[in-house]
Amino acid sequence: MTDTGGQVAAFTHVGLVRDGNEDYYGVGDDTWVVADGLGGHAGGEIASRIAVDSALRVLGEAGTTDTVSALRGAFQAAAVDIHARAEAEPAMAEMGTTLVVAVREAGGGVFVGSLGDSRAYVLATEGLQQITRDDNIAEVLLERGAITAEQARVHPGQFSLTKALGLGEWEPAVHQLSSTTGRLLLCSDGLNSELTDDHIGRLLATGTPPEACEQLVAAALEAGGSDNVTVLVVDL
Length: 236
Ligand code: CA
Prior knowledge:
Blueprint: E1 2-3, E2 8-13, E3 23-28, E4 31-38, H1 41-60, H2 67-88, E5 96-97, E6 99-104, E7 110-115, E8 119-124, E9 127-130, H3 137-144, H4 149-154, E10 173-176, E11 183-187, H5 189-192, H6 197-204, H7 209-222, E12 229-235
Antiparallel strand pairs: 1-2, 2-12, 3-4, 4-5, 4-6, 6-7, 7-10, 8-9, 8-11, 11-12
The protein binds calcium ion (CA).
């Protein structure tokens, strides 16, 4: 659990089934990051760490660069760094990761970049809104109208990513939040594959960010904890 004075908290848990935790998160100056690695235990753990560290480094050095360019630069650098490590170590050849990054500008605007199926949600006056779209087969089927949102949550296609950082892809989808206030959630799919959005919204509204993190992770474990679960909550 990370608790940086009440406004930001994060919590990661290995879950009840997996041996290792391939999720990773990081917090910088007005920068929040979650990654969910893949490619076997060691590879997944290393890929998610490289992605988070590279993103925080690049965004920390970005200065007055426009935020969308800075976000793209962060994803590109993370992909280059993962690729370099994978080339150097044959055992890591299959590693990749999801990456979701939120950045708040000096003026208060919040931008989210994502690739893979780790998500950003915002809880504001109009309720819970999912900011990101999953890069996976279930999302493709959902957008095609072949399955409903509730079916997508339990569909096997959720485990087949259409994009992963370090496996040939780096370009993030970038979204700007319509509100500069509210409660931001970044999470790995170990949360949203266990809980409905309604459930996530109710727990996200609970207490302080550390309390919301605890509630969300506890509920994911209670629902089965079949994957690593990571949540990062920010009061904007
Ligand atoms: Ca996962």
